[in-house]
Amino acid sequence: MRIFNTTGWTAVFTGAETETGRFRPVEAWDQGTGEALVVDPQHGVLRPVSYWQDFSHLERAERVVGVVPGDGWRAHWNDEGGKPLTELVLAWLIHANGLATPISVDPDGTVGTAELADRILAPGQDLDPHH
């Protein structure tokens, strides 16, 4: 699973009696201790990862530094559920390393990454490369 955030780090929690294992994006670093801070969804505040007993470790995440519009690009899958599928690229996530990830939207409005698409089509490009 790819996780995107602005710090480039994700906190991993193993799970406890009351919560399952989970990933949370690191939102910031404590100025005094340098400890990773994540959002406490119960209280809507930033807390150090050590606040939770089931904190395991930090992992690198994809650091997003910008977003640009999809501008007519499309993602195409040759066989998605038994038939071909083409979705509009809503936006491109620009990473710190210069790579871009297409974010597509389906007809129902569901948004997701299209990095596993079979082809990414430029604006005006046909599926048939001979046209």
Automatic annotation (TrEMBL):
Domain of life: Bacteria
Protein's recorded name: DUF2750 domain-containing protein
